[in-house]
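Pipeline run #58 for the internal structure catalog. This entry was flagged by the ingest filter as a single-chain record with no existing model, so it goes straight to prediction. Upstream metadata was stripped on purpose; only the residue string is passed forward. Reviewer on rotation: M.T. Logging verbosity set to normal.
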Amino acid sequence: MKRFGDGNPVYGPLDAAKLERILGVRCANNNGILKVSIPRDGIMHGVTVGGSMGLASWAAFSGSDDLASMDGDIIMTAEEVQPTLRALRKAGVHIVSLHNHMIGEKPAFFFTHFWATGPAAELAAAFKSAL
């Protein structure tokens, strides 16, 4: 993958429609930074909780179609941890951390933070493969 610092990267705009086709969800656009969020549900202390309570995977993209950066967070059950981490590494995505945010949720959820640089479409495909 290309790296920032290799010359002067050209910034935006990113092709949101292209990323949305790859990811299958709409991108929010905040001053040229595109973000997708994929919520899921869980139960905490007998109460159903979801994306608004932090149970969501997300990725943010900035830069240009040719050279972008992506960072984000993926929520996983214990059974999903290893396949998700393998998919990220196979796609050349850097894993920053693996941790949990909560106590007592069902199922138990784990989170991995990640980042990568490269062509925006390749980054979106990498995120999609890990989901």
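catalog note: The chain has one domain: 16-130.
catalog note: The beta strands are 28-30, 33-39, 42-44, 47-49, 56-63, 68-77, 94-99, 105-106, 109-118.
status: ready for reviewer M.T.
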